[in-house]
């Protein structure tokens, strides 16, 4: 079973606000989130010729558009690798090269390191895009490049494909040598969701979650925060 198949197991109403930026106050309802995710996926395919199996890297602090890029990439049939925003150029370069990333979405605060690393990884400047709405040093916001009116439905995977298809490429801390990429398949994620959903979850539609972990962290990104929201439809406040 693929991530897309269980995208809304508890029938979250479209008008329910599920993401709020704790700094700016920007928010997304579930309906807006779904629509923006599908538009992002369409933009990847249309504007960047992003194909099934391609890798997109996210290099950013926690902020409200993070889940749109994350799930939009999955919807387009791609893999996501998330990099810690405190990485200097060398560590980021290594992850971009090792993961085979062909697109990089960056928070403006860490753009300098991203520029150098993208050059090392031979990712063209046209495929390095920003969170936010401002162009900086010729690097454009992803929204101005990718988002149009077109939407696509998420790529379909058979049950067998879901077992072997990588959704996320998280990287270890490298305490015993070089940092290693950890492949998380669609089935891995769905099984974890099922475990959470089978528990006596104390969270619900009136709960508010404030993530302490960085969303680039494997636990924070793929297991804890988004799982709890999409299973219990609580509100996530990004900080």
From TrEMBL:
InterPro entries in the cross-refs: AMP-dep_synth/lig_dom
Question: Which residue ranges run through the membrane?
Answer: 218-237
> What GO MF annotations does this protein's record show?
CoA-ligase activity
Can the keyword Ligase be found in this entry's annotation? Answer: yes
Q: Where is the AMP-dependent synthetase/ligase domain?
A: 13-216
What is the superkingdom listed in this entry's lineage?
Eukaryota
Xref: SUPFAM superfamilies: Acetyl-CoA synthetase-like
Is ATP-binding one of the keywords?
no
Entry-linked Pfam families: AMP-binding (PF00501)
- Identify the keywords attached in UniProt to this record, alphabetized: Ligase, Membrane, Transmembrane, Transmembrane helix
Among PANTHER family, the record links this protein to: AMP-BINDING DOMAIN-CONTAINING PROTEIN-RELATED, LONG-CHAIN-FATTY-ACID--COA LIGASE
Family per UniProt? Answer: Belongs to the ATP-dependent AMP-binding enzyme family.
What protein am I looking at?
Answer: AMP-dependent synthetase/ligase domain-containing protein
The species this protein belongs to is Gigaspora rosea
Top-level taxonomy: Eukaryota, Fungi, Fungi incertae sedis, Mucoromycota, Glomeromycotina
